[in-house]
Design a protein that fits this description.
Radius of gyration: 23 Å
Distance between the termini: 30 Å
Shape: elongated
Structural class: alpha+beta
CATH architecture: Super Roll
Number of strands: 8
Number of helices: 6
Order of helices and strands: HHEEEEEEEHHHEH
Number of domains: 1
Helix content: 25-40%
Length: 191
Amino acid sequence: MDQPNVDYISYEEFGRRFIEHAVTAERVRGALDDLAGSSFQFGPIGAGPGRIAKISADVDLGDIEVTRYVLDEITFELVIPIKVHLVIDLALDVHRFDVDGNVHVGLRVRTAAPLRVIVDVEPSKKKDVRIDVSPQTIRGGLLRIVASVDQEIKRFVVKYINNEIEKPHIQAARDIDVAARIDSAWAHQQS
């Protein structure tokens, strides 16, 4: 028997609305809060011909921008700003660079049996890192090319982001067992 003032919807429509409500940009951003504002260092590592140049860097990650796309599937694009303070040591002289850029990370929301919501992360690749390296001298610009500075920065940033996203607490936030949470809430109400 229908209840008055109730707008009934199909099970399929209910499921779609549930997913759209459950997986929001704010919740995705919250799950990745530890990543925003973090820092890491790499180097010194050898680069260039004969690995004569030694590259080291301090990398700071900014606040994550999250954009949600709701089509047949729900997907997200994360943009993580980065600032890199880079040093290239040639033994004879030292060159410093300030690098700005960002990392793009794609997420896809999926459902799985028996009643789970899973947020899949596309592993970052070097092509997902966009940087602007501004050498202060012509010699620094040539050194940047010879030592493959851009590729080294991208390689280390990708490795760090992918390792962070695979940490247990972030993995747990990406796999939501809805059935267990409903059962737990129901048991709590019964007690």
